[in-house]
Design a protein that fits this description.
Length: 469
Amino acid sequence: MNQSSEKCLGPVSRRSFLSAGTLGLGGLSMADMFRMRADAGEVATDQETSVIFIWLPGGPPHMEMYDMKPNAPLDYRGDFHPIQTKVSGLDVCELMPRHASCADKYSIIRSIAHNFADHGGGHKRFLTGRDPKEPTGFVNDFPAVGSVVSKCREHINTGLPNYISGTNPGRAGVDTYSFGAAYLGPSFAPFNVPGDPSSEKFEVKNISLSQSISDRLDDRILLRNGFDQMRKQVDQSGLMDAMDGFQTKAVDLLTSEKARNAFDLSQETDELKDRYGRHAWGQRALLSRRLVEAGCSFVTMVMEQPYQSGIEQLKRGVYNWDSHAVNCHLFDDAKVRLPIYDQAVTALVEDLHNRGLDKRVLLVVTGEFGRTPKISHQIGTQTGVLQPGRDHWPNAMSMLISGGGLKMGQVVGSTTSKGEEPLDNPLTPNDLWATVYRHLGIDPEMNFNDHSGRPLPILPDGKPIAALI
């Protein structure tokens, strides 16, 4: 995947959890985003619902996680064993024991498939609900679902952006994961929060004042003081009155008490932070819950690199979920990756239910495709020895769904005995998104004009998944 080379212009506050900087959208300021959204007009939806979308780029191995085949031949089933959960018929990998204890609070979909085996094509196909014009690369021809939600909810102002993403540093560009808004325009791209929320140095670089305003502010004061001092300085100078409404709204949004509180993980108990895990994945999951609870409509958190937050890089491991044999030893990497994943995801599932958010918030956890059912062996690039792995496989994949007022504690669909393709209840990514839009109260037949002025529906096809409703 492409690494982003965008540079942040730097914070204007040293506050530990929130500081000022740029959006990482090619110099686009928050005020510019509001201005473009106003120019584009409003689309009305009034649902107090939201989505947390956990993205696992690279393609998680369905047969090592949620669709194990213990009776398949050895070169298919792999090294791990399934364990029973508290839900009959729902087994998971032995490396995910926390999943077993809360299986009544989520459902697993095993029968979604598509036709794009390249990472770029897979990202675009999955995240936009359309076949991409180019089967490789990560630049969207059509808007990602999060951008559609942001567009449909542009009139809603909760004190937070309506679409927020969390990534590793250097991975904030919208084209890194095909998060782009395409013809909806860059103002509907995600408001990115890069970094490791478990780090004491974590900060949110996310506001940009216009040059005319910035030149009139004392940078030394802004660098020295936190948001409270920044707000006081701006207000006393009279500059707030001089700003146009969009610039004022930009400052209000991310210097507001609500924004500061939403991003401030220090308000959570040590016990809960420990439950999520003192790791980038766990604390991103916790942050996602805080953001939707504060009113954000669509939060995407990327769980990609497990070897951070004090976890030593495994020579036989891999950065993302792309478990080719040349990249990693599939099973050794999973022994590190899956326990971290198990802790973070189940803590989020249980927290949403414990706080009574399971009706209002829908959680989706997935990657762009699954992995080949048959294990391959190649010499690893890093290890220089023969090791097992799995390649790209869009013909079958598994994903976790929780909340949204849907039916939990079940398996939706199945695959063949070797995990090669859907056996019953075959679905596509569009059926997932139709379910998501139903939860959000968004009509998937609503049209938006593309760059040529041609009206295109939000989804060209797909129906809400009946087994979940």
